[in-house]
């Protein structure tokens, strides 16, 4: 989602730090609540002994919740951010899941593994691959026969303004997004369209989290700019894309296993 780099004279805050603050109360970095995540993972991990890969895992919350579904699940995460991987490592250790998790500091698009995975995850990270379809092409390289991909990306619920498209991307509507996925040889076997409550809760958590940090650290030289950033992002959400942006998560399987 839209967490950028902000900096000010003498006191830069990088993307990872801003993301950590903004997502402190919403560790799933996408507009889904805990029950929606649970249901998607339950559908994507039916056996309970799957190998799971997250391309662009960030702080690893999806992987940790996948590992929580059963003691025989094993997972690997790939991300370029050392800060995010350190966060994933710490969280996995704290939750007693570290021995079943492997973390790779690497560009997800260049990652290669000796064995395929039963589930490949990439939720809210399509920008790293250049869009949803390139994300699916990357996931396909790692997928075991009969395996599933769980992806999440935006779509336009209503015709967006030019400003909204410039800000978030040139998505299609929901039907167009799903049709494009099917045309690439994938069959949806489950999915979730984020509700208005989920979408709003995510935005409030992100920009409210930044604002709260700024107000709690008034003596910090960075607080004024953090608060300004929170105000700007909240205004963009309310005035530019709240009424048009939607988010869909899909559990997909290959329609034909012999098709690359």
From TrEMBL:
Pfam families: Methyltransf_25 (PF13649)
InterPro entries: Methyltransf_25 (IPR041698), SAM-dependent_MTases_sf (IPR029063)
Gene3D superfamilies given in the database record: Vaccinia Virus protein VP39 (3.40.50.150)
CDD domains according to UniProt: AdoMet_MTases
Molecular functions (GO terms): methyltransferase activity
Domain of life: Bacteria
Keywords (A to Z) from UniProt: Methyltransferase, Transferase
Entry keyword Methyltransferase: yes
Transmembrane segments annotated in the record for this chain: none
Family annotation (SUPFAM superfamilies): S-adenosyl-L-methionine-dependent methyltransferases
GO biological process: methylation
Domain Methyltransferase: from-to ranges: 52-147
This protein's name: Methyltransferase domain-containing protein
